Amino acid sequence: MDTSEVLLLARAQFGLNIAFHILFPTLTIGLAWILVYFRLRAARTGDAAWLAIYSLWTKVFAITFVMGVVTGITMSFQFGTNWPGYMQKVGNIAGPLLAFEVLFAFFLEATFLGVMLYGMNRVPAWMHIAATLLVAIGTTLSAFWILALNSWMQTPAGHILDGGKIIAGDWWQVIFNPSFPYRLTHMLLASGLTASFAVAGLSAWRLLHAGEDASARKTLRTGLVLAAVLAPLQIFVGDLHGLNTLEHQPAKIAAIEAIWKTGQGVPLVLFAVPDDEKRRNDFSIEIPRGASLVLRHDADAELKGIDAFAPDVAPVAPVFFAFRVMVGMGVLMLVAAWAGVWATRKAALPRRWMLWAFSGLTFAGWIATLAGWLVTEIGRQPWLVTGILKTADAAGAASGAQLGASLTGYVITYTVMLIAYFVVLTHLAGKGAPA
Amino acid sequence: MSLDLPLVFAALMGLAILLYVVLDGYDLGVGMLMPAADAGEQELMVASIGPFWDANETWLVLGVGLLLVAFPAAHGIVLGALYLPVAAMLIGLMLRGVGFEFRVKAEGWQRELWNWLFWFGSFLASFAQGLMLGRYITGFHSGFGYIVFAMLVGASLCGGYVLLGATWLIFKTEGALQKKALAWARWGLIWIALGVALVSLATPLVSHTVQAKWFDFPRTLALMLLPLATVAAGWRVWAATGRLKRGEREFDWMPLAATVAIFTLAFVGLAYSLFPYVVIDRMTIREAAAHPSALKFMLVGVAIVFPFLIAYTTFAYRVFRGKARAGLYE
Prior knowledge:
Number of strands of chain A: 8
Helix content of chain A: over 70%
Largest sheet of chain A: 2 strands, antiparallel
Strand order of the largest sheet of chain B: 1-2
Distance between the termini of chain B: 53 Å
Helix content of chain B: over 70%
Shape of chain A: globular
Structural class of chain A: mainly alpha
Largest sheet of chain B: 2 strands, antiparallel
Radius of gyration of chain B: 20 Å
Number of helices of chain A: 13
Radius of gyration of chain A: 23 Å
Largest interface: A-B, 65 and 56 residues
Order of helices and strands of chain A: HHHHEEHHHHEEEHEHHHEEH
Oligomer: heterodimer
Strand order of the largest sheet of chain A: 1-2
Order of helices and strands of chain B: HHHHHHHHHHHHEEHH
């Protein structure tokens, strides 16, 4: 099997794994903080209903968390097996950051999750609240370290070249590299939105089956209010993140906006079918000078196009479409959350079609997150570490046959796991919290 | 700073792997013993490992993480050579993890299905780990004999984990289930004896370096303390399970403690055989080590985290001390 096929298999396997993995931490990071809120409500009001809500959602948390853990263990192996060139070249940066995720975050989460799930009757209430809080802090810390690494790969800083290898010159600059603050905030907000829509959606599902469930009405409201606050924040932060990308990864912006030629007064492409072969847009709908205005706040400003970066450019079409899916989902979530807050004011029960709509949006956050992840990861191609290491130079080790066999195994296992996850989730949501 | 960083990280990695083997070993063992118990006992078994298994598995991530980040050159060779058993282990760990969490929320035949997957995943992961050990200590040589050997080590590691699981249950349960666990422990002991003997014989046969290290009088006499202590620990397990079975005075934690001693001694012996190699006869820890700048930075992190890690792990085991009760989760 030739190397390009091995590269394709290595990428397919890692991409599948990480795309599957990212779903679950995205949900658990946000959900962990919502659990802290539920637990505090239960403690302050002494209301058994809040405690029942807490215990229902800890179950959702537990099954989501375990999915994240087992797929995450897989990734810790694949970093080395699928991308040996990566560890060889930048292992002295990536290694410590990954190790810190394990040390600072994983043990904290895993240990206190045990106390949180099984310790309610074994430890004093304050200690149980503290355990819930520590799990939330742990999940957030893991996002901190993994996004520090991911951001460094996108916008490397603070490193020096030492005999063909990259080593850290200034760890502070490595961690707090230019895109890190934006990416971390964007991801944490994405996580909060994902969790709030999951809470609202599953509560709506319960209400469709048992309209008088007071607990589900409470959690529907919690999810919607949180989403209504986070959605506009996310749009604001997303815009800042975009401007940051324009500064540090202009090639990615060119792909996102499907700008083929460098020029002044560049139009904003609302919709088009980018043709990567012919390097042009078909069927495009444009706002004249729009892109210059949006990105540079000046209708006549110059923007670099794909031509300025060729041949090191990402495939435009997937980045372009994924970006539009992400933004579209973001706007949809904003509208849905605000409509939902209005519909549930003064403890009103929304109409059935609306509950159906919320149920349908249960995993809206997942779609937006995956789309955003595709934008950022495909958008930096052909680089694995911008300007330092190309993806093609990082693959190796495993043979095509090994990759093929294990990929088949993973696909089957993931399919089974995902189906099971949905079955159990639907079952839990359908049963509701015993009030 | 004249700290020997590769040595420090080799020790840390060794510690993480040993802790992983002992800690996840007992919950993998409990998983493998599931089919031997009735439905009520299964609930107790699951409850006994529920609060711990997740953190136990994290030691694997730390162990392999340290291999990856402290000895990147070795990571490529080792995991490249073990690609398929690693994939099998990962799939096993996924199935058992998901099986464990999902079984509680399911009823009827679905719970049976998750029980089965929990058992199968535990078995697959354990067997794959033994296979990896067998391949690793024979320097990844190809050939029919080496594969058979690796499979035997795989089977014995399953036995070893069953012993850990059974002695954990002796410690954490009482009554009929404890009685059953006493019998399981003895079966596990026979298997682990086979495994330890196999590995002890094979390593010097495969590697002259290992042979020279062990058969070098008069050092050999001092080294013989290691196998003697291992046999003594094995005897302690046998005797303690016997006394507990007959209802004579014995600590319920004694079989577990002696089993942990067996694993620790075997591990020390193996570490002595390999040192200073991380890939037997091919690559030393110094050759494989990452850049000092990376190692130093990590060491700072380790120094900050380790005291907390030990403290809250101890805390968790204290919170869940005593005999396991079913239905903790519901």
